[in-house]
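Quick one, C-alpha cells below:
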C-alpha cells in the first residue's frame, strides 16, 4: 500500500557560518566528518549527531525502499527556524534552506517539499511562503509552535495564516524552543514533555482565538499526534463550558467544533495513545508521520499502524489518503 510520510527532516550538506556572516549568535553550524556530522552551537558544544541520511538523498531513498515508504515530505530541522534572527537575516537563511529542498524535490519525484519562513516578520514570511508555492513548487511550509513571544493566536500572525489559506498552502506545525527551559534541564525533558505541551498550546491558541473559525480553508497539520492536546481535550472542552468569560472571549464556539478542521500525524509511539487519536480525530484527519531520521522517530514508518487491527479503508487513509488531502493533491 502506498505510504506518504509527512514528517521527515532534511538539511543541506553544508551550512554557512551564519554567526560570522551576521555578526551575532544563536545559529547552529554543521560539522561534517565523512558520512557523519553534528550540529554544533556557537560555543562549540554538540547539539545533535547526524548521519548521512540527514542530507544525502540517495541514503534517504535506500531507507525508503527498505521501509516501504513511497514518498517523503521534506521539511527543515526545526532548530534552523532561527526566529531569533533579524528579519532580513532570517529570510536569507530561509531562502537557502528552501532552495535546497526545492532542488531535492525537483530531482526526485518521491520527494515533496515544505519550506520555512521568517515568522518573526509576518510580511516577509508571507512573501517567502508565496515564493515557496508559486516559484519553487513546494506544497506549503513548516512553522514552529510560536515565534518568540508570539503564540500562534498573535494578531500579528493572522495575515500570514490568511495568505496560506489564499494560496491553498499546507501548513505543518512543529514544536521548537520549548517552554520553561529553566525547569527542564535534565532527562531530555524538553523533547519528552515540552514538545507535547507546545503542540497543545499551539492548537488551543488557534482554536480559542478564532483563527480556524475565520479561515475555514486553512489546511494545518500538527506534528507528534497533536502532542498533549488529545489527552487534555476533555479538560479544555469543559473549561470552555465552565468559564466562557475566560475561554470564549474571542471565539464563541467550543473546541470540539474544530476537530474536523485539524490534521495530525501518527507519531505517538503507543497503541493506547493511537487509539485515543483515532477516537478524537478519526483516520480522515491522521497522516503517517515518522520524524525521520531522528531518534524519537518511528522505525520503520507506520510500524504502529501495521501492528493494529484497522480496516483496509482506514489504513489507506492513514498511509496516504489524509496526506494527499492535506497537501492539496489528488489520488
Amino acid at each position: 500500500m502506498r505510504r506518504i510520510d509527512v514528517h521527515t527532516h532534511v538539511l543541506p550538506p553544508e551550512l554557512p557560518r551564519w554567526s560570522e556572516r551576521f555578526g551575532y549568535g544563536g545559529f547552529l553550524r554543521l560539522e561534517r566528518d565523512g558520512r557523519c556530522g553534528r550540529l554544533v552551537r556557537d560555543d562549540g558544544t554538540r547539539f545533535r549527531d547526524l548521519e548521512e541520511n540527514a542530507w544525502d538523498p540517495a541514503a534517504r531513498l535506500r531507507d525508503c525502499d527498505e521501509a516501504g515508504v513511497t514518498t517523503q515530505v521534506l521539511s527543515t530541522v526545526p532548530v534552523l527556524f532561527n526566529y531569533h534572527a533579524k528579519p532580513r537575516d532570517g529570510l536569507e537563511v530561509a531562502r537557502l534552506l528552501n532552495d535546497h529542498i526545492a532542488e531535492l524535490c525537483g530531482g526526485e519525484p518521491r520527494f515533496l517539499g515544505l519550506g520555512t519562513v521568517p515568522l518573526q516578520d509576518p510580511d516577509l514570511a508571507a512573501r517567502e511562503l508565496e515564493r515557496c508555492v508559486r516559484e519553487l513548487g513546494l506544497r506549503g511550509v513548516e512553522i514552529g509552535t510560536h515565534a518568540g513571544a508570539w503564540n500562534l493566536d498573535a494578531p500579528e500572525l493572522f495575515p500570514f495564516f490568511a495568505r496560506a489559506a489564499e494560496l491553498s498552502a499546507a501548513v505543518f506545525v512543529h514544536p521548537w524552543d520549548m517552554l520553561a527551559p529553566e525547569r527542564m534541564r535534565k532527562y531530555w525533558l524538553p523533547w519528552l514533555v515540552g514538545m507535547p505541551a507546545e503542540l497543545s498550546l499551539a492548537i488551543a491558541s488557534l482554536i480559542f482565538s478564532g483563527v480556524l473559525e475565520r479561515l475555514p480553508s486553512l489546511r494545518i497539520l500538527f506534528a507528534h499526534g497533536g502532542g498533549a492536546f488529545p489527552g487534555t481535550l476533555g479538560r479544555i472542552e469543559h473549561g470552555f463550558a465552565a468559564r466562557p468569560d475566560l475561554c470564549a472571549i474571542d471565539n464563541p464556539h467550543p473546541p470540539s467544533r474544530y476537530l474536523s478542521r485539524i490534521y495530525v500525524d501518527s507519531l505517538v509511539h503507543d497503541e493506547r495513545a493511537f487509539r485515543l487519536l483515532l477516537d478524537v480525530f478519526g483516520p480522515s484527519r491522521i497522516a503517517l508521520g515518522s520524524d525521520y531520521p531522528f531518534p524519537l522517530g518511528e522505525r520503520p514508518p507506520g510500524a504502529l499502524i501495521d501492528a493494529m487491527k484497522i480496516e483496509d479503508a482506514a489504513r489507506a487513509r492513514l498511509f496516504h489518503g489524509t496526506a494527499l488531502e492535506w497537501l492539496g493533491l489528488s489520488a
